[in-house]
TrEMBL record:
<dbReference type="GO" id="GO:0016491">
    <property type="term" value="F:oxidoreductase activity"/>
</dbReference>
<dbReference type="InterPro" id="IPR013149">
    <property type="entry name" value="ADH-like_C"/>
</dbReference>
<feature type="domain" description="Alcohol dehydrogenase-like N-terminal">
    <location>
        <begin position="23"/>
        <end position="139"/>
    </location>
</feature>
<dbReference type="InterPro" id="IPR011032">
    <property type="entry name" value="GroES-like_sf"/>
</dbReference>
<dbReference type="InterPro" id="IPR036291">
    <property type="entry name" value="NAD(P)-bd_dom_sf"/>
</dbReference>
<dbReference type="Pfam" id="PF00107">
    <property type="entry name" value="ADH_zinc_N"/>
</dbReference>
<feature type="domain" description="Alcohol dehydrogenase-like C-terminal">
    <location>
        <begin position="178"/>
        <end position="299"/>
    </location>
</feature>
<keyword id="KW-0560">Oxidoreductase</keyword>
<dbReference type="InterPro" id="IPR013154">
    <property type="entry name" value="ADH-like_N"/>
</dbReference>
<dbReference type="Pfam" id="PF08240">
    <property type="entry name" value="ADH_N"/>
</dbReference>
<protein>
    <submittedName>
        <fullName>Alcohol dehydrogenase</fullName>
    </submittedName>
</protein>
Length: 338
């Protein structure tokens, strides 16, 4: 079997892997498409830091995760696929059915997130295992390439749901990477009347408009808060200093939703948030119902994810794609099509 694996910080093409074998409750699928996520790029560059931070958290389901950075690592969690074979005593969709799933594999040893693993194959491969109870059939007529973006769209929907945005409130989205775009799409689909997006990249601002932003702001021309008075602010940048700057500039009584993953220590002045009674909500991933709702929204044309797809590569092109995604003006989402 062919796959792209992470080895010593670089994606490497392999064609010598055995096909995964489904156990009870599992299904072998053929991967149709898999989006390259920014978290994969970050793990490739800062894997040790990611693992150290994850394992230091008490109460986290992933705190017990063990990954050997010296061995090949499988990744790829934004995928669509076709059913090939069910495991023993497993009821599932007929062979050939296009499906997607929350990236979790249920097995005899427990729950294995399909994110970073030395043993559980992800979407950067010809074939992978999925859990029969978690499979969702891709509705007839929906491009499976578009269905592969269900996962990041669910992340955006979860952030918007946590914010409890009312249609009449102004929402400001800081950062127009894939998660910022997903938040914009979810806000527009929820009927929010004023969605403003801020990003330094002209290409990303143009794309934000296509995804539903009513207007965009270039932070290079001044703080977005100079021209926008938001009730809800979504931070989707994930670099030190952003949260503190938002607390300092945001209006009294506003709400801050932090979706950007910052792996560095950060400093905030609580006084800003206290004096203005700003509510801060950190968000992560999504609920199963939000994943299903995102697939339905894409299938019914409520959210058009086509503009986000700016490139496609085969398994032998994943390494170059990781490099190209460093340029925000060139790409937003590259799909791997094995």
């Amino acid at each position: 079997m062919r796959a792209a694996v992470l080895r010593d910080g670089r994606m490497v093409y392999r064609d010598d892997l055995p096909d995964p074998s489904p156990g009870p409750g599992q299904v072998l699928v053929e991967v149709t498409a898999c989006g390259i996520c920014g978290s994969d790029l970050h793990f490739a560059s800062h894997g040790a830091k990611v693992l150290a931070a994850t394992q230091s958290m008490s109460g986290s389901p992933s705190a017990q995760a063990s990954v050997d950075l010296g061995a090949d690592i499988f990744m790829g969690h934004e995928f669509s696929a076709k059913v090939l074979q069910a495991g023993p005593a497993t009821d599932t969709f007929p062979g050939g059915t296009p499906v997607t799933s929350i990236p979790v594999l249920l097995g005899a040893t427990g729950v294995e997130p399909i994110v970073y693993s030395n043993t559980t194959v992800g979407g950067y491969a010809e074939k992978m295992l999925l859990s029969a109870p978690l499979l969702l059939a891709i509705p007839n007529g929906l491009d499976p390439r578009h269905a592969a973006l269900t996962e990041p769209m669910a992340v955006g929907l979860h952030a918007v749901n946590k914010a409890a945005v009312a249609p009449g409130e102004t929402a400001l989205v800081l950062g127009c990477g894939p998660i910022g775009m997903a938040i914009i799409a979810a806000l527009r689909n929820a009927g929010v009347h004023e969605v403003v997006a801020a990003d330094y990249s002209a290409a990303r601002r143009k794309l934000a408009t296509a995804m539903g932003a009513h207007r965009t702001v270039d932070p290079a021309q001044g703080s977005p808060f100079d021209t926008v008075t938001p009730k809800v602010i979504f931070e989707a940048v994930g670099v030190p200093g952003i949260i503190d700057d938002v607390l300092r500039r945001a209006p009294v009584g506003s709400r801050l939703v932090v979706a950007g993953v910052c792996m560095e220590p950060d400093t905030v002045h609580p006084f800003y948030g206290i004096a203005k009674e700003i509510s801060v909500q950190f968000v992560f991933a999504y609920e199963p119902a939000e994943f299903a709702a995102s697939l339905r929204a894409i299938a019914e044309g409520e959210i058009d994810v086509a503009p986000l797809i700016t490139g496609e590569v085969g398994l032998d092109g994943v390494s170059a794609a990781f490099d190209e995604l460093a340029d925000p003006d060139r790409h937003c989402k590259i799909l791997v099509t094995p």
